[in-house]
Each structure stands twice: as structure tokens, then as C-alpha cells.
Hints:
- By secondary structure, this protein is mainly α.
- It is about 65% helix and about 0% strand.
- It contains nine helices and no strands.
- The chain is rod-shaped and about 105 Å long.
Amino acid sequence: xxxxxxxxxxxxxxxxxxxxxxxxxxxxxxxxxxxxxxxxxxxxxxxxxxxxxxxxxxxxxxxxxxxxxxxxxxxxxxxxxxxxxxxxxxxxxxxxxxxxxxxxxxxxxxxxxxxxxxxxxxxxxxxxxxxxxxxxxxxxxxxxxxxxxxxxxxxxxxxxxxxxxxxxxxxxxxxxxxxxxxxxx
Length: 185
């Protein structure tokens, strides 16, 4: 009768201390070392069929750990650390359809304003004229333009269901100028 060889998986736990010490010496960080040991054990467990029974289990595990460590270092060299999310935030882009949907909603609401309110918003908000300049162009007093702009903005917010804490994402600077609150100066 032939004696069956012991399962090499049973031997893995015997090398945990040495693996952790080796990982700490490489990574110089206990959390990273623990991750390396865990990755090594997972790789060894899933590839146990590649281990040659009777050969040096510790050397095989150390080789896996060392290769895992250097793969991690190569990967980290290519990555950019962005702990506060500033870099990834700068790369983010809202989907184009959001702007089109907001613009459609805005156009629908804008069309519901009366002529004087639309005119005042376009002159002051979109064209960038001062209240005084817009009043002169329309032949009305400055207070009248201020009132029309204020009522138009309030009506737009109502029609678009924008609350005080809501804000509309606009990709069009002209539309943003129309909707934005301007100081009464």
C-alpha cells in the first residue's frame, strides 16, 4: 500500500509568521504587509495544483509574496494618489443629455413668461447690461426693470420647480446668466 501525501494546503498555516515578517520587511507598513500575506495565501490556495509536493513550501510562498509585492509597486507607480478626490473631480464630466434636458425645461418655462419679463431677463441676465442700461433701452425706470427681472426669475424657479436649496446645472452661460440672481446695484 502506498501512503498518501499530505495535502499541501494543511502546511500553509505553518508559514504565516515568516510570511508576515517578510512582507513587513518589503512593505514597511503592517497594513500593506497583512494585505500582501492575504493575497499570497489566496494565490497559493487557488494555485495549489502548481505546487510540487515534497518541494520547499516556504520558498514557493515567499516567491508568490515577493512577486505580488513587486506587481503592487509597479501598479502604484502608474497610479496617481488622489485622497481628497480633487483630481478625479476635475476629470468628471456630466452627461451631455443632462444639459439638453435642463435646457429644454428652461426653454419651456422661459416661453411662458410675459414679453416684458423675457425682455428684461435677456437684457440684464443674458446680454449683461446693467439695470440702468436696460431701463434706458426699454424706456422705463430702473426700478421697473429690477422688478421685471426679479419676478421673471421667481416665475422661472416656480415653473421649473426649483426650491431655495435647488440649483440647476446649466452648461450654457447665457441661460445661467438669465437664471442667476444679480445683486440690485
